[in-house]
Each structure stands twice: as C-alpha cells, then as structure tokens.
User: Fold these one by one.
Assistant:
Number 1:
Amino acid sequence: MNITSEFDTIAAISTPPGEGAISIVRMSGDQAIVIAEAIYQSETKKLTEVASHTLNYGHIYDPESNEVLDEVMVAVMKEPRTFTRENIVEINCHGGMVVVNQILQLLLRQGARLAEPGEFTKRAFLNGRMDLSQAEAVMDLIQAKTEKSKKLALNQLDGKLSGMIKHLRQTILETLAQVEVNIDYPEYDDVEELTSALLKERAVEIKEAIQNLLLTAKQGKILRDGLSTAIIGKPNVGKSSLLNYLIREDKAIVTDIAGTTRDVIEEFVNVRGVPLKLIDTAGIRETEDIVEKIGVERSRKALQEADLVLLVLNQNEPLTQSDRELLQLTKEMNRIILLNKMDLQPHLSREELTEYVENATILEISVHSSEGIDTLEETINQMFFAGKAEERDATYISNSRHIALLEQAEKALKDVIDGIEAGVPVDLVQIDMTRCWDLLGEIIGESVQDELITQLFSQFCLGK
Ligand SMILES: Nc1nc2c(ncn2[C@@H]2O[C@H](COP(=O)(O)OP(=O)(O)OP(=O)(O)O)[C@@H](O)[C@H]2O)c(=O)[nH]1
Ligand SMILES: [Mg+2]
C-alpha cells in the first residue's frame, strides 16, 4: 500500500531562523528522495539507492549552475516508519540563513511545495500515525514553558488522553449495540424498561468519568497557558518593581513618580514550576490625564480577567480610599495581598486590614531588600499545586477545544439521563447518546471537519 500518493511533496526549514551550527531542511512526500537526489552529489551512493533510516554524507549543488552550495548530511527515511508515514528527507546543512534558504529554493525548483505551518504534523495525523489530541500535543510540546507543561504534553502525545476517550466511546458503542439488540429481539415484555435502565446506568458512569477529566481541566489549562496573574494597586506602591524582580529583568519602567506605568505589560515567568502570565498594570486612581485614564481602564480589565490577583499596598503609608476600593473590588477573587516596602517605616499594619478582609493571604514584602519574596513564590506554588499536581501520571485536560467538547458531551449525557427519567422513548434518547459519541470522537479527530483540521494545524510553526 502506498499511502503517500495522495499528497504532493512538501518542504520547509525546520530549525528556528537565525544563526546556528546546523540547520535542517525537511521534506516529506512521495517524491522527497528523488527531489533531494536532484541537488545532491556523493562519491558513494545516490540517495535513491541508500537504505532507509540512514545518514548520508555529500554535497548540495545547484544543477543549473553546477555551483556547490554546502557540505551536508542527509537523513533518508522511507515510508511508512516515519513521522508523517511518508518518505522523509532531512538535509542537515551548515547554519546561516542564506545557505538554508538557497537549499530550500532548490528543492522548490525541483518540484517540492513550501509546507504550510504544521503541515508535517497534519500529515502524520491524516496518514493515521497519530490522532488529533496527540497532534495537538506536539504543538503544546513545542510551546511548553515549564517542566510540568512539557510533561503534560508528553502524556498527551503518549496517547493517554486518547486511550481514555477511546475507552469511553467503546462503552457507548457497546451500550448502543445492546440497545439495538434489545429492541430488535425482545426476549421479555418489559424490554423497554430494561433498556432504559441500562442506558441510564451507562450514561451516569460515563458522565462521571467525563466530570473527573474536567476537574483536571483548570489545572491543566494553567500548566499550559500560564496562570493569568494581575499585579494591581494604586500608583507608586511598587507593582512594576515586583514584576521586574519576579522576571529578573528590568522590563518595566520604575520611577518614584506616581503614574509611571501607562500600559499593561505581560511577561511569562516560571515560579517554582507554576507558569505565570504576569501582568503589570497602571496604578488605579482617578485621573484627568488621558493616557493614564486609558491605562487605568486596562488595569480594570486585566483585573477582571485574572486567575490570580497580587494586590500591592504600600506599608509605608496609611491605608487610602483607593486601597479600600481595591480591597473591596478583589474580595471575591483569588488574591494575595502584599504589604510592600517593609524596609521603610511601617504606617499600615496587618491588623488594620482585617477590618476589610477575612481569611485573605497577607504577606509583608520588600522588593528592595527582597525580603518575603521567597514566601510569596512558595505561596503561589502552594495555592495552585497543593498535592494534586505532583501526581506524575495524571491526565490533565488543558486544551480549550477539548474542554469545550467534554462539556458538550457531559451535557448530552445529562440529556440522556433526564430523558429517561422523563419517560422519553428509547430511540430518542439514543440520539443524545450518539451525539456524545460524536463529540468525544472530535477530541481525537475521528469525527472532525476539514476546516477545523486546517485551522488547528495552522497554529503550528513552520517546518513542524
Ligand atoms: N523602599 C522601597 N521602595 C520601593 C520598594 N518597591 C518599590 N519601591 C520604589 O517605589 C517607587 C515606585 O515603584 P514602581 O515599581 O514604579 O511602582 P508602581 O506601583 O509600578 O507605580 P505606577 O506604575 O506609577 O503605578 C520606586 O521609586 C521604587 O524604587 C520597596 O520594597 N522598598
Ligand atoms: Mg508601574
């Protein structure tokens, strides 16, 4: 069987742009080896004659001018035991954008087509080497920001999630088959009742499994996208100083002028394994300054969207009206209250705050002397990974698309259960059960539309 004949041969530079010791130009498709051979010279064998999965030494040359471009090692991998299940050629050449681009141009001139972002992985999916959730994991792996998110992606790539989903789908399929049998060959008079009972039992069971998966979703999403953490406070309390400290870089401008930060600044930082998307905001206050006013608006928006709020107060000043408002505004949120500038004379105490907050985490810190920041980092870690995240094998659902589909599947099962309880005929209830089967299928790509696939893979980087 030649599974490659369906597609043309694609080529792309697979290594990141810029200078490096080695760059790789990758090709996949029926003609990959033939095309590579057309621009390759070797004193030993032709690429079309070498064994599969070998690395071959030679030179790349321009067949039109006969000019030699680079000394290369060419990996030849014949289908089907390859990433895309097609013939793959990888030309390892010397770094430098010029040479790499010239080699790519030559391949295109010989009949390869420039690959779209993610097209190699898309082929791996279309050729059945991996399912959709695994392909998405490849993308997550590339973008992983911490050790934990990498592990999460690896688990998914491993097919852990797919395995669970497939198992659930199998159960649904068996149930539906049983229902058909019961209806077509009724052995007893009360078959309708028995069948309903079976459907309900299974629906409850599967719904529970889906709910368990969804429970991990929040944590999984954080691991993947970062915990959106807004640093909020009135002007001049040290918000930007804190951001700079946590990212260990002088990213945000810090001055003793109130109203320094005008724009929202976002930075990723890994705090003891918790990926934070830190957001430094303009100090919130009433202002007539047009630019600052917009900044304050943005701060409020960032506040609304945050998973975690670091509310910064200046310990060196008595509590102000703005502080009180912010304490009130963040009351229902996940927050840590920071009393900054503890290196200075205290004019604000923990006790005063208890009037405004119950059970809040209040920490005294000084960005200048770095006191208390260790505790802050530890607290953030504790808040989000108390115990749970350490289960190494947990299958986290982290992908928004998966979450949405699981939620819909859960809803379909609820319809099954409600339907049976309301005495809806079995054949109608079956429709909801089948819908659940379809929805779960979408996660692993067994019932997805072409358009979705194109859109998903376009999020990849070029050459992957
Ligand atoms: N003594 C002392 N000064 C600090 C500390 N943290 C920040 N500062 C100073 O406080 C001033 C304001 O710091 P910023 O980080 O710009 O404050 P901000 O909250 O971002 O202010 P806006 O952007 O205007 O809202 C600067 O002069 C900092 O050096 C601290 O822990 N101790
Ligand atoms: Mg600032």
Note: The domain at 224-390 is CATH 3.40.50.300 (Rossmann fold).
Number 2:
Amino acid sequence: GHQPQYNARSGPTARNEGVLRIVPIAQLNPYQNRWTIKARITSKSEIRHWQNARGEGKVFNFDCIDEHKGEIRATGFNQAADKFHPMVQVGSVYTISKGNLKPARKQYNPLNCDYEISLEPNSVIEECLDDPSSKSIPSQLYKFRKIADVQSMEPGAMVDILGVLQSVSELVSLTRRDGSDTNKRSISLADNSGCSIEATLWGALGSNEGVQLEQAMLSPDPVFVACKALRITDFGGRSLGTISSSCFTINADVPEMEALRRWQAEGGCSSLTALSTGGGGGGGRSDQRCTLGMLKEDVRQQVSSGSPVYLNVCGSITYIRHENGVMYPACPNKVGERNCAKKMREEDRGNERSWFCERCNFDSPTCDWRYMLSITAADFSGHSWLTVFSEAGEQIFGMTALALHDLQESDPPAYDRAIQEANFKPFVFRLKVAEETYNDETRIKSTVSKADPINYAAESKLLLGFLRKLKNDEPVFTCGAA
Ligand SMILES: [Zn+2]
C-alpha cells in the first residue's frame, strides 16, 4: 500500500533500509562487492601508533555484532582511523558498507568470524538512530566457560568468564621493554564451578574499567562481572589477561546470571579452589592476609607438606633483638651472578682492619654490611619471631646497614635511638615461611622479605573487603596459596 512506502522514505534509517540490502555478518565473503551490515559496536580500541622498517602509521579497530549473532572486527589505518575512531561509540548501532573483506588475523582476533573488515577512508558508517529494529541486536555475545575449565585449556586461548568479583588490587605502574610506561591491575573472580582465578587488566583497562570495578567493590552487595575476551596464560598456575578488545560488564543481563547469583547467595564463595598461585612464590597476594596467630597452627600444617608458603601479615614490631648487633660483615665477592654474602671474619692486623672470607679464601680491607636480625611482631591474634635481612632491614630502620653501622661506631646513643624508633612501628610484612632443620631439629622459620609501611587508603579498602566477607560468612584471613 501507499502508507508503508511513505514510511520507508521518511527517516534516515528507513531510507537506508530501502536502498541497501542488509546482509547478515555470517554471510559476508570477499566475493561480494556491495554489502551493508547493520551491527552494534561491542568494543573499540584506542588508536595505536606503530613504527617499523617500512614506515609508521596508526591503527584502531572495533568489534561488532548483528541481530543474527554474527560478529566481525573492523580495522582502520591512518586516515580511516582519524575519520572513524571518534565516530563510533560502543553500544551504538551502525550500518557499515564499502569496506574490504580480508581473512581474519586469528592470532590477534578472537572473534568467531573468518573475515575482518578493512576500513577505507571512503567506507560508509552511519548511526541508526531511533531505529526500533536495533533493539533485537544484543549488546554483547558471550560464550561463557567455567573457571574450572580454564585449568585444562591451552595458554593463549581466549575465554569469556561470568564471575563474582572477589578482589581488586591497586593500580601498579610499570615500564615496557621499549621504555614506555603502562600500568596493570589484577582482579580475582570466582564462579559456581567452585574455582577462583586472577585476571590482569592492562593499560587503559586497568585505569578505567579497573576503577569502576574497584568502586563497585565498595558496595556491600556482591559484584557480578561478565568478562569478554580474556586470554589464558600459564603465569602462576593459570591466570587471565586482557587484550585491547576485552570488556567488563557489571551485573550484565545474561541468562547464566541466575545460577551464579543463587550459588553466591548460598555461600558458594566460602570455599574456593584457586587456579592462580599469585606468580609462583612472588610473595603472596597483596590483597590476601594471614595473621601472626595463624603462623603457629594453620601455616605450620601447610608448610610441613614441603614447599614454603608466602603470605602477608599486618602487625607491629614489639621487640628488636640487638645485643649482638643487627648486621653482619658480608663477603662482597661475586660468586657467579650473586654476591657471596657469607659472614667474614675480622682479622687482627695490628692497626689495620681486615676481613677474611673462608669460602672464597678472600682477604679484604672492606666488607659489605648487611642486616640480619630477629624481631618479634604482634597483631590482634598473637605474636611471632621473624627473621629480617637486607631490603626489609632498610625498610624497618630507614637507612642502609652501612649507615646504621657507621652510626654505631661514631655515635652510639644515636644508634640506640635508631633501634628504639623502629620498635612498635606497624608494617605490612611479606613473609616466607619454610621448614628448617638444624641439629636434627625441624622448626618453622618465618623470614621477612618486605616490610612495607602501611598505606592507609589501600588498607581501608582492604578492610571494607573484609567486612563484605564477614557479612557473606566467607573466611577473611587465609594462609595464602600453596
Ligand atoms: Zn666469600
């Protein structure tokens, strides 16, 4: 009739519909010259600059899906990047035409599509405003896998995860191999497979999405996150990392959510198997805490199985044993790549001071002063003896062992004051707890690898997380990953 024809020519989108035949993404192939797809943008990268022997340029890409759940990536170089990057917005629906179809570069492109669109400056991208048919296009396509399945999947594979957010770490800045700066932030997720895993958010994802997740964690309600396109790594057991097109959606509207909510409400997170071991001995996850009281029983049991346990405790120094000094004269000789560091013997050469290392058979007028001392530290749950070496000693006394040694020789009262000032100071201690056998007697030795001053903002966030765990009947303190 006449009425539908009139409507077909009224709005901008309707006009497009009339002129262009919309092709399902799944039917695109390089032998088609004229095609138009209608799709919602699910992710958009930043513009990246590159430089190599053939020249330099810039590139960006976006991923999109259509109403038939077909997905495809579009890439724009140089002029096309300048033109289209500011135009396309994640979540909006566009018609796209006049791009070149090329085989998908599967090493970079996790989408389930054999082709990708190479955008030219004369490609056409038009937003579909007020188009009711856009509602039938989903906002994201997920193929969720259970966290437990990640254990047996290949490193490098891509995965979508729907999980309960367990923790969000501080943003950490680091330097890339090429000298440029970036940052990262790690989060921990659990799901109804009964497992938890860590995911690292790199670059802008760590600073932008990471802040949103961090703020969501401040609410007392559980935070459910749908993660799209995370790469599996075998770093520290199994863990996940973002790529430029990774997406995080809080409380996503997906059918799998109901089962996860029910599992969480029934206390599912109270007993989890961790797939990530926090970097294999790096020193315990900074967002997991143990107590000094737990060193006596829980940690002892875990250590007796053989391998050392790394964990963090927050406590105050209550005693510094210093009758025999807090440092020793270490051998400065290089043995392989490391310093020998064995204790040197002071030789009596009349007026001259001389040091001798039996291991190296090495005679030297100087030695390398290093911290080695025992302290006790206490928290609300108990106290424990801890052994302190070099770096942690510098953190505790606020000066090098050489500086403190010079003070001891030149100004003994100032040396005593330096010891007293360190007493009763609070720290977050990073501990390595291991079994040690000495004279046929096996005991547990706790060594301080770091003594960080307390960052009160970070500590407050951690305590809020503990309150949430208490409310959900989840354990607050753990012995750390095995
Ligand atoms: Zn030596």
Note: The longest strand covers residues 426-438.
Number 3:
Amino acid sequence: MALWRYWTVPGAVGPCTVWEMRIRNMAYEIVKHDQEMMRKVNKANILNLIREKKPVSRSELARITGMSPTSVGRIVTELIELGLIKETELAFSRVVGRKALLLDTEPNSVYVVCAQVDEDISRVGIVDFDGTIICERTCICDAHSMGWDEFTDKVCGEIEKIIAEADFDKSRIIGLGIGVPGLVDTANGIVLSSPQLRWENIRLAKYMEGRLGYKTTIDNVIKAKALAENTYGSDRDAKRVVFVHFGTGVGSALITDNRIYRGVTNSAGEIGHTTINPNGRLCDCGRRGCLQTYITERALLQEARTIRNISGIDEIFEAALKGEGWAVSILDNLHTYISIAICNIICMYNPNTVIIGGKMVKQPPDIESIIKAKVDRQIWAQFQGSYEIKCSSLGEHAGLLGMAVLLVNKYIDIEL
Ligand SMILES: [Zn+2]
C-alpha cells in the first residue's frame, strides 16, 4: 500500500504529499485571515484616530498611520457613506500645503440601546456613535426572588420607557446590547449559566428580539466593561489590559491589542470561581471555597453580621473611615483577598495595566494606593515594576458603553 498519496492543490507547483497540501492550505488560510484582520485593524485605526483628533484631514490620517492616501481615502469614503463621519470646514494643511476638508464624527448617526443586568440593580441606556450615554435609567430587579421571564419583562419595560422618553431619531437604532454576568454563548444569544442571576440556558437574545423587535446581542458584562475601559477609559494606549470587577460577583477580562480574549467557550476570566480553599464557603456555582465567596458584597455582609446588625456595606465603609476596629479588620481582609486575585492575574497574563472596578473597590477614597501597596508586597519580585493598577474611570457606565462598542464594531465590521 502506498504510504504517500499525491494531490494537486490550487496554487501549488506540481503534485504534493498530504502533509504538504495541509501546510499549503494552512498557509493560504493564515494569509486570508491576516488580510481580513489587517482590513479591520486599518478601518478601526482610522475611525479611532478621527474620534481622537477630530476635526482631522485625510492627509494627517495618512501621516499618522503610515497608510497610503488611497487606502485612507477608501476607508474614509466608506465611513462617510455609512453616515458615521462627515466632512467639515476647510483648514490649511501643512502636509499638503493647501486647504483641505477636515473630518469629524457624526454622533447622531447611529444609536445603541444597552442594558447591563445584575442580581439586584440593572441599568438601561441609549448610547450614541461617539459613546455618549444620552439617557440612562436604573431599576431594582431582584433576580433571586423573580423568575427569569419576570425579571426580563421588567428590564424590557424600562427599555421601552427609555426609548419612548429620550429625544432622538428612533429609526437610527442599530440594535440592543445586553451585558450579563456569567457564561454567555454570544454567537447563539444564550445565557449558559449565571450563578448570580440563577439562570441556566436562557435564550435571552431571541426572547428580547421577540419582545422588543430589535436585533439583540448579548455578552458577558465584564468583557463589555473591559472593552469600554480600553476604548473610552484612562488607559487606551495600553497593549495588554486586564479589567477585574469586584461587585456582586468577581470576574476579569483580558484585552490584548484592542481585542477581547474569550477562550474556547467565551468563558475566559472567570477568576471568581477559582478555588482558594477546597473546604471553604459554599459558592453560588455549587462548589466550595471559590475566591468570590471571600470578596463579594454578600460575603462581607455575612461576616459583618456575625459582629453587628447592619443593613448594607456602606455601614462597613463608614465605620472603617471612623476607625472602628471591627470594620477596619473586615476591610483589611477584603483588600488582602482582592490583592491575591490581582497578583494571580498579573502572574497569569503579565499585563501593562490592571483596572479595578465594582462596588467593593469604591471605598475608601485611597483604595487604589491600598491595593497597590498590598500587591507590591505580595507579588513575586520578578513582576515588580511591570504593571500599573488603576481604578476604573468609567465606573457604573462601563457595561453600557462596552455593549455599545461591541454593537457599533459589529455594524461597521471591525469586530476583532
Ligand atoms: Zn464558585
């Protein structure tokens, strides 16, 4: 029996073996993928530069990016035809030595209706093309006492109200984006598992589309927040950024070169369910000793209520600010676990920046330096000086903004 079979593949010079064919096909796929990726990256770069430098000329864009004037012109024409950017006044351009038309964004060109849902407070808003939230509402929806359909109907009601109340061109809505805590099958619009919401296998996108009539995209809310921080936040230039959220749950998301790292099943970054103590506290995921059982609001309240009868975590923050020992001790413990989480993330991803957000790191005012000092003490010496730790600059708005970025990128076909 012949060990080698001979094939002729398109573009190949003469016959080749099975392995040669595989390698050639692989090379062809890589080139095709790279060209497609380059096209998206170039378009995204031009758009981001217009957003940052506006008003700006085509020649200035070509000078900054190093792209040819023809390539810049082609992308600009496409964006003008989509109505996303516009030509404004003539201004003298040093690059071309005469007056040139400048380019600016058109904030009212498209709108995204966004929602970020959580186990206690959900948020809905309308975001324009420039990333401005033109209208926003919060609603108290208790996921633990409501069924998923009752919960979702309440959020839909808030979305209908905000669309009706806000003054904007409704025909320019390009879709609905919903950020959800937990594991999300974005391609099929399914919430696979959300321990915080206590949802399993919910076809959320299809339900929302049927209820509200807008094309719906759902994603993990932490990934959306990370993308927003990387697009609109204080650390836009960093190549490798990890956003870590400490709220009703704990999660993280890595962004490399403006791209979300998703993992095989879009589940990368679920650091809250990494095990700290195999015999520890019971977690919402059904296992014991997960990191988030030591960091979340619920964990803190449980611990505090063994000492005092308090109604919310703000009482712990206030008591700690007054120097009351029990509260200082609880917060010190919390900050130690937060620092352990960040040290682990730095060792795993070696990022430029770790951005921290969520209600557990809102207080005290010097939280950034407290956490940084603890991380610097705990981290392996080899990593010291390689990272920055910053508090989120977008706060509670990050989820809405991130979903808007995802939908706009999809609309323009620059989703990486
Ligand atoms: Zn868990």
Note: The radius of gyration is 25 Å.
Number 4:
Amino acid sequence: MVQDVTMTAERVLVRPAAEADDPALLALDSAAWDSSSGFPSFRAALRGSFFTERAGPQSYLVAELGGDVVGYVKLQDKYQFAEGAGVLEVAGLAVSPTARGKGIGSTLLDAVATEAKQRGARKISLYVFETNTSAQRLYERHGYVVEGRRIAEFVIDGAPRTDLSLAKYL
Ligand SMILES: CC(C)(COP(=O)(O)OP(=O)(O)OC[C@H]1O[C@@H](n2cnc3c(N)ncnc32)[C@H](O)[C@@H]1OP(=O)(O)O)[C@@H](O)C(=O)NCCC(=O)NCCS
C-alpha cells in the first residue's frame, strides 16, 4: 500500500517500511518522544536498531517528505488468537519534531484506515496518555473515540499517569 499526498508545495509519500529505513527511524524515534507522550525508560534504553525480531519492517508504514523519512506508524494485530481477529492496534505513531503541523500524522492515520479496511479489520485500537492532548485531537479528528480510562496506570516523572484507550470502528 502506497499513498501519495500533495500538501501545499510538499509531497508526502506513505509506503511500507524497509530494512534500509532502520537508521532514519532510529534517529526519528529518539527525537520524537518526551515524557508527555512516551515512556522515559524506553528512551533511556540503548538501542542499536529500530526494528526488532518481533516488529520488523512489515509492522510499519513510513511517511517520506522530500525523500526523507519523517514519520512512522506501527500497525499490528492486537490479538494473536481467533476471537480477537479483526482488531488492529496502532502501537506507535510518531512524526519528526521538525516536520510536525503539516498533516503528516493525519496522512499516516488515513493510510492506517485504508490498510485496515484492506485487511478486513472491524476496529482499530490504541492507547494514548491523557497528557498527550495534541495526539488526542488528531485521533478524534480521525473518528477515534475514548473507550476507557486506565486511571493512574503508570508513574512517570514521579506522578501518576492516566492512559486512555481509543478506538475507531470500521
Ligand atoms: C502526535 C503526532 C504524531 C502528530 O503529528 P503531526 O504530523 O504534527 O500531525 P498533523 O500535522 O496531522 O496535525 C497536528 C496539527 O497540525 C495541524 N495541521 C495539519 N496540517 C496543517 C497545515 N498544512 N497547516 C497548518 N496546520 C496544520 C493540525 O490541524 C493539527 O492541529 P492541532 O494540534 O491544533 O490539533 C506528533 O506530534 C508526534 O510525533 N508526537 C510525539 C509522539 C506521539 O505523541 N505519538 C502519539 C502517541 S499515542
């Protein structure tokens, strides 16, 4: 699945990730998250590569702007058993800080919806910290609704953090 979207003067291409994207995605990932959006312990862990054995390029779509990788979304089956079939999970969405506010996150979510429909999914699920209001606005614009609140699910920077469960029904 490849989507080509022209925004203002710039062209965003969404395509499946490839092994060769590893260094660019590693750099993007280390710049993209802070403690309002991600887990500090994940950022502190030394990583030699972006892709892992369990989540290789096949789990990701990437966004390119002017030939540079500027965003990614990780999309996977939420459950590994028959009864949960048809529920996809957005298990990571990030755009390079220098490329934000141009609709790249939105283009990636459009691509997720297209891909999910192609796979015959009935629902897309994700989690977002309650503190991450910019991401919540983006998801809401794309039809995601709050399904649940996991109150004080984590402790981040010494404070309890509530995690929201969001879903889009296809
Ligand atoms: C959340 C995230 C992926 C959004 O990516 P993005 O590319 O900036 O998203 P968009 O550009 O589609 O939308 C962001 C804002 O820009 C605005 N925008 C989009 N295109 C625009 C344009 N051409 N001109 C002006 N504004 C524009 C949107 O309306 C939106 O505004 P809002 O913040 O007031 O709601 C990005 O901020 C990020 O990587 N954050 C850190 C990681 C994260 O939080 N991930 C989600 C965890 S669940």
Note: The chain has one domain: 3-122.
